[in-house]
Specification:
The structure is a single chain. The protein is an all-alpha fold. It is 78% helix and 0% strand. It is built from 4 helices and no strands. Helix 1 runs antiparallel to helix 2, helix 1 runs antiparallel to helix 4 and helix 3 packs antiparallel against helix 4. The protein is elongated, with a radius of gyration of 17 Å.
Length: 138
């Protein structure tokens, strides 16, 4: 992610553009994380943490793509890009689900607390991948 780029005309606006995108992505992520956590909390009482996380995170991933495309990167929705973002979220969700399961078994934490432990790292990775896919011109 380029945070600072010096332009030949003397303008250095790329840093602000990226911070604005990151801030908007944080708002979108906070909203979809809320949805994710509500769905996860409900499902984790009736199924395993791994299944609850797969369902809730997939729902959140689709929500992030839709909202980030429209309100963060100001791009039209595209089926191929949507598929790529959702595919990333499915892969990441599977990996984070295993991490949550391992944390729940090996640490004195609830499934909800284990999920919260994964949030900072998953946020950064999701921003970078979503930005790359949605902003890519191809």
């Amino acid at each position: 992610m380029v945070i600072w780029r010096y332009h030949s005309d003397g303008n250095s606006i790329e840093i602000m553009r990226n911070f604005e995108r990151l801030a908007r992505f944080a708002l979108v992520s906070a909203f979809t994380l809320g949805l994710d956590l509500v769905v996860f909390s409900g499902l984790s009482t009736i199924t395993t943490p791994i299944v609850a996380n797969l369902v809730s995170s997939t729902f959140a991933g689709l929500s992030v793509y839709l909202l980030a495309s429209l309100f963060v990167f100001f791009q039209d929705l595209a089926i191929q890009k949507g598929f790529s973002v959702v595919a990333w979220y499915m892969i990441a969700t599977a990996l984070w689900s295993v991490v949550i399961q391992v944390e729940t078994v090996n640490l004195p934490v609830t499934p909800f607390e284990a999920k919260l432990l994964t949030v900072p790292c998953s946020f950064l990775l999701n921003f970078l991948v979503t930005r790359f896919v949605i902003s890519n011109r191809s």
